Amino acid sequence: MEQRFILREGNSSLLLFFAGWGSDECLFTRPAAEGYDYLLCFDYRNPDFDYSQLEGYQSIRLLGWSMGVWAASQTFSGKDLPWEMKLAVNGTLTPIHDTTGIPEAVFNGTLDTFSPATLAKFRRRMCGGTEEVKHFLDRQPRRSVEELYEELKALRQEVLRLPVPAFQWDKAIIGTEDRIFPSQNQLEAWQGTPVLSMNIPHYADLFFTECLKGKEQLWTKD
């Protein structure tokens, strides 16, 4: 996967963000919380992770969004790291699943008919409305359709091949307007984990600005 420091100033604390499928630094280059370095992870065609980039940090905030929730869970399952908090947003440990993820027929339909038109339709559903689409397009990832197809195909292969990761998140934020990971499926998936329901679609520009900046309401474990 790609691991890119958006901010690296020698802070003792790190914000580690596993973004969703199709992301890059264009979408998530934004200010981080004061006192934190900021490492962004994306492009899950290759699952390899360089753990050496985490060395020296005394405290790590983990943020996972969409497919990044699953990718982070696989990457850190069984790892002992100085977690401050682990926050999952609009994703689950079983991202291709009829009752606790994206319904399998929907996921397969997107992959099997993938094209520029399919991608545009997906992004409209992801953003939930015209205004949010405009915000997304202002930060649109600079990745080719071919590359995104390869990543989606690799994700399906690995999600179906690997066991459900044994990883515990501290809190899950569920967008009640999410049209990618149905909110009811997320609620089913996060039984036993503290949940915060918010009136946001799958991708919400202002939400991520506030979340990366460390908005206190979001970064509390209860």
TrEMBL record:
InterPro entries: BioG
Pfam family, one: BioG
Highest taxon in the source lineage: Bacteria
Protein name: Biotin synthesis protein BioC
Organism: Phocaeicola coprophilus DSM 18228 = JCM 13818
